[in-house]
Write a structure and sequence with these properties.
Layout: E1 5-7, H1 13-16, E2 28-30, H2 32-35, E3 39-43, E4 49-56, E5 60-66, E6 69-75, E7 84-90, E8 94-95, H3 99-106, E9 118-130, E10 133-142, E11 145-160, E12 166-177, E13 196-210
Antiparallel strand pairs: 1-2, 3-6, 3-13, 4-5, 4-13, 5-8, 6-7, 7-9, 9-10, 10-11, 11-12, 12-13
């Protein structure tokens, strides 16, 4: 993730009349405070959430999350484009608060968790959009179907926790069409429309702990 570039506090006279977007890339330098975060991180599942929201019966939203997941991040302050992320999600851990609905989601109509137990994401590119906002692109695999996914992320900051662990935090979201991954089950409503929308919003609240060197 391109987390380690910030605009210089001072600018040349030539830069003064330009907007940030117009200034050359050389004006963006590594911020030493953020560059110090360079390293490998492990996602802390106890303090992270991978969730989703989907429209139900055309009138309300159903929200859920995957309770079991693991992942790693590599943050590179010297070359932000080389930062990476990898996440594995256990499909059987899906939880919407309704046992029968969760069983349906795990079954062959939707995820077929017995045959395809994992949903995976592997990053392929990263960029800074502006400020603390970043864009991570990668490959999302569900039911052996792999398609590109772009996640907009906001860097929430870094801290040393009470146990001495260095942490970073991110919050992000993405929108997908579930049919692109073969999740096509639906039911027509008598009043028109369908039971479950094709569009799904994914949400990510990530806390990651730096791995000891």
């Amino acid at each position: 993730m391109a987390l380690f570039t910030r605009k210089r506090a001072t600018a040349t006279a030539t830069d003064a009349g330009r907007t940030t977007a117009q200034r050359p890339a050389a004006v963006l330098d590594a911020d030493p405070a953020l560059a110090a975060l360079t390293g490998d991180y492990t996602i802390d599942p106890a303090h992270s959430r991978i969730g989703f929201t989907v429209r139900h019966a055309m009138v309300t939203n159903v929200r859920g999350a995957f309770g079991t997941h693991e992942g790693t991040l590599h943050l590179d302050g010297a070359d932000p484009a080389r930062s990476t992320a990898a996440v594995d999600v256990t499909i059987a851990s899906v939880d919407t608060g309704i046992a029968d609905r969760d069983a349906h989601l795990r079954g062959s109509d939707f995820f077929d968790a017995d045959t395809f137990p994992l949903m995976t994401f592997r990053s392929t590119a990263a960029e800074r959009v502006g400020g603390d906002t970043y864009r991570l692109t990668g490959d999302l695999t569900i039911k052996d179907v792999t398609r590109p996914l772009t996640i907009d992320l906001e860097f929430q900051g870094s801290a040393t926790d009470v146990y001495g662990a260095e942490r970073v935090g991110f919050e992000g979201s993405a929108a997908i069409l579930r049919s692109d991954w073969g999740l096509t089950w639906n039911a027509a409503l008598e009043t028109g429309g369908v039971m479950v929308s094709d569009k799904v919003k994914l949400t990510f609240d990530i806390s990651a702990v730096k791995t000891a060197a």
